[in-house]
């Protein structure tokens, strides 16, 4: 066997040793699916929690609307919740 053929075969062996098998790819697919499911569950949980925080801020705003300073803090918290929602892609879409 000449040197070029031996080099090609060595290169092929190198590739085959490191190449992912069908089972490796299937396993990766399952891991990605599980990761996606967990991420979606956590994202929904975060969304629900942010909605609850917004609802509670609305109640505080109604209860303490006459007190100066408190409404400013509530508005600041509302802005922070909005920024988090925007960062997560949960910003409310208001129909025109």
Question: Your description of this structure?
Answer:
The chain is mainly alpha-helical and 96 residues long. The protein has one domain (3-88). 80% of the residues lie in helices and 0% in strands. The protein has helices at residues 3-18, 22-63, 70-88. α2 packs antiparallel against α3 (70-88). The longest helix has 42 residues, at 22-63. The model has no long low-confidence stretch (mean pLDDT 85).
Quick recap:
This protein is an all-alpha fold and 96 residues long. The chain has helices at 3-18, 22-63, 70-88. 80% of the residues lie in helices and 0% in strands.
Could you tell me the mean pLDDT? 85
Q: Domain count, please report it.
A: 1
Query: Given the helix and strand composition, which structural class is it?
Result: mainly alpha
Give the biggest sheet: none
First and last CA, distance? 76 Å
Secondary-structure element series: HHH
User: Which parts are unreliable, with pLDDT below 50 for 5 consecutive residues or more?
Assistant: none
Shape, principal axes of CA atoms: rod-shaped
**Separate helix tally:** 3
Q: Level of helix content? A: over 70%
Strand percentage lies at: under 5%
Q: How many β-strands, per DSSP?
A: 0
Rg of Cα set: 28 Å
List the defining traits of the structure above:
96 residues; single chain; mainly alpha; 3 helices
Describe the secondary-structure layout.
Layout: H1 3-18, H2 22-63, H3 70-88
Helix pairs in contact: 2-3
């Amino acid at each position: 066997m000449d040197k070029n053929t031996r080099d090609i075969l060595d290169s092929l062996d190198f590739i085959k040793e490191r190449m992912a098998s069908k089972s490796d790819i299937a396993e990766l697919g399952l891991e990605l699916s599980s990761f996606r499911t967990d991420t979606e569950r956590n994202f929904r949980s975060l969304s629900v929690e942010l909605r609850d925080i917004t609802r509670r801020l609305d109640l505080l705003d109604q209860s303490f609307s006459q007190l100066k300073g408190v409404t400013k803090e509530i508005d600041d918290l509302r802005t922070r919740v909005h920024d988090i929602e925007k960062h997560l892609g949960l910003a409310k879409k208001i129909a025109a």
